Amino acid sequence: MLVTVLIVIFIATGLIYATVYLFNNEVERDLSAVSSELNSVFENYKADNSTTFTSGARQYIENFQYKQKMEVMAINSAGRILLTSTGFSYDENENLTDFEIAKSSEEGYAFWKGRIGSGENVMSLTRIITNNNGSVIGGIRYLVSVDEVNRRIIIISAIIVVSSLLILFLIIMPGSYFIRSIVAPVRELSETARKIARGDFSTKLERHYNDEIGDLSDAINDMAKDLENTDQMKNDFISRVSHELRTPLTAIKGWAETMQLSGRRKLDRRTFDKGMDVIIKESARLTGIVEELLDFSRIQTGRMVLLNEKLDILAELDEVVYMLRDRAVSEGKHLLYDEPVEVFPAVYGDRNRLKQVFINIIDNALKYTPEGGVVAIEVKYKKEEDPDNIIITITDTGCGISAEDLPKVKEKFYKANQKVNGSGIGLAVADEIMNLHKGRLDIESGVGVGTTVTLTIPILRESQKIAQPGLSQPGLYEQPGK
């Protein structure tokens, strides 16, 4: 803004200076043109003597044709006015600066501009008349009023100044609007972003304008809210994981101390077996939690590797169901699964990772299903409808998931039901494993009606049959979107 103002002031000053120069130069040219007539009276601006000069000057002044526009006067060598075209008496104290300058000038003439005794602004040109020896014997002075010229200069200068002010106004107003609507809000955005970066997620931006800056403010507010929610979920996750780790550790420590203290005396077999059973079960549970955390870490850093091979998906699912059936019976829940009689196409994937997905989903279904509830598993392959995928659905009659929580249940750290044990990252890991297999994990649920999880698993394609067992298919290392 300052640079722009300085440029406008510089241009305006230059235009005013040019106007003054052009008008004054025009007056000087007029005076020079009129003074050239002296050649017809004094050849080469010379006279034989002062008498000849006075006689010639008188005749020239009497016949001067521009008396209405300017005044012409004859000056003797002493600098006194001898004659004037106005016919009026002249002021003895008249300023004849231009005559003195002209006498010392090599060109033999000089201009002068100023105010005379009457108060009028004038410009004068004095041309020296010399004799044959080069001595000054007098001079002819032309005097013209420049009041009208000055008025024109003032008018034009005023127009330039007003135009410059108008230009400055037209520049400053949009600039001020730009500052108010963009620069200031951007500074506020930057400051808010810095606060958010420091962890102050409660900072909010007001939407001042219904434009891109306003949209950006809303986006930053949404980002701060999401970060606040994520931070809260992370804290809850750490708390849950700490609790999940502490519970088995406490059980293991308790029974280990019991067995150690009882080592001095004979421990009955029943108590010993119970203690070892608890230690083994809780150790397995602890191992599962740690493995889940490691898997989550691998997913976050893009280091999860799939050991792909041709496999029978029904065999893997049947093994998982068999493993969890006893748990369902012990908890008084019904785990229903009828293995299809038809032959299903082979699947190309990581055996252990797919089993991990099945365990995670069925375990969740059992966990959220009350006693007496049902968890049903169904496998479908309809070549006519979807020839490329095998569909596995796990349906439970549990508490269900609210419409508000449903879109977030696959996000990291998120846990819809805080009353049930779990770290809250199992679904996120399962979803990522399905994505790495180019499959899909979809969830449908409603509060009080249960939940249905649909696993879409691609079948083995012709291009994959040449791959060696145990090697990851190209591209399966990468996270979706990378």
Spans of at least 5 consecutive residues whose pLDDT stays below 50 are 466-482
Spell out the helices and strands N to C: HHHEEHEEEHHHEHEEHEEHEE
**General form:** rod-shaped
Rg: 52 Å
Q: What is the CATH C level class of the largest domain, in words?
A: Alpha Beta
Strand order of the largest sheet: 2-1-5-4-3
**Residues in helix, %:** 40-55%
Structural class by helix and strand composition: alpha+beta
Task: Please indicate the percent range of residues in DSSP E strands (runs of 2 or more).
Answer: 15-25%
CATH superfamily of the largest domain: Histidine kinase-like ATPase, C-terminal domain
Sketch the major β-sheet. Answer: 5 strands, antiparallel
Description:
- By secondary structure, the chain is α+β, with helices and mostly antiparallel strands.
- The chain has three domains: 36-145, Beta-Lactamase (2-Layer Sandwich), CATH 3.30.450; 212-300, Helix Hairpins (Orthogonal Bundle), CATH 1.10.287; 306-464, 2-Layer Sandwich (Heat Shock Protein 90).
- It has ten helices and twelve strands.
- It has helices at residues 2-35, 38-41, 50-62, 97-104, 147-197, 212-261, 269-301, 313-330, 351-368, 426-436, and strands at 71-76, 81-84, 109-115, 121-130, 136-145, 308-311, 334-337, 347-350, 374-380, 389-396, 440-446, 450-458.
- The strands form three sheets. It has a five-stranded antiparallel β-sheet with strand order 2-1-5-4-3, sandwiched between helices. A five-stranded mixed β-sheet has the order 7-9-10-12-11. A two-stranded antiparallel sheet has the order 6-8.
- Strand 9 and strand 10 (389-396) form a beta hairpin.
- Helix 7 crosses helix 10, helix 8 (313-330) packs parallel to helix 9 and helix 9 (351-368) packs antiparallel against helix 10 (426-436).
- The longest helix is centred in the middle third of the chain and has 51 residues, at 147-197.
- The two termini are 45 Å apart.
- The model is unreliable at 466-482 (pLDDT under 50).
